[in-house]
Amino acid sequence: MKNAFGLILVLFLFGCNQGPHQITIKRSTPEELCETVFETLKYNDSKTFVALFYDQKDVENGIEARWKDNQKAYRKQALTKMSKDIKKGRFDWSSTRNEIKKLGINWEDFELKKSTFDMDKIPNVSIEYADLYLFFDHNSVEYKIRLGNCFNTGNGWKISEAPLFLGKSGK
């Protein structure tokens, strides 16, 4: 009986002490990627945010595998650009967070209202890409963030650029 009580107490205390907000990475669709990026910004989780970028493994396994032999020149050009992007260190999202803070907006005070995207495909290849837009309200004013050049890597959607705060959306 003592052991059972002790176990229940430990589990209760562990459950009460979860620490920072835990973000589940969801990126099967552009909408899920938008929700996950928004949560990383809201809860200042740069580690999870960086995991949302495509990496060399995504390029080699997910994207490169979809190119056809007759598209070698275009494929090489695109893969070279993606590889350079990976090496650039494109993970700086602090400017987006800081721009919003300068407006006196506390990240914890708002929720993602909607997301939109302009879907496209690379010609003759089954690689989907899109610019994604996140919309959120603060004091009845709608604001917008852009995630440019997001790709469906074959292992879910990933981002290639840091978020860009576009200010008021103009509804």
Q: Can you describe this structure?
A:
The chain is built from six helices and five strands; from the N terminus they run ααααααβββββ. It is α+β, with helices and mostly antiparallel strands and 171 residues long. The chain is elongated.
Strand segment count: 5
Which residue ranges are poorly predicted, with pLDDT under 50 across at least 5 consecutive positions?
Answer: 3-19
Q: Pairing-aware structural class of the strands and helices?
A: alpha+beta
- What fraction strand? 15-25%
State the helical fraction: 25-40%
Main beta sheet, described?
5 strands, antiparallel
Please tell me what the overall shape is: elongated
Termini Cα gap = 61 Å
Number of helices: 6
- Overall average pLDDT: 75
Compact summary:
By secondary structure, this protein is α+β, with helices and mostly antiparallel strands. It has one domain (about 20-170).
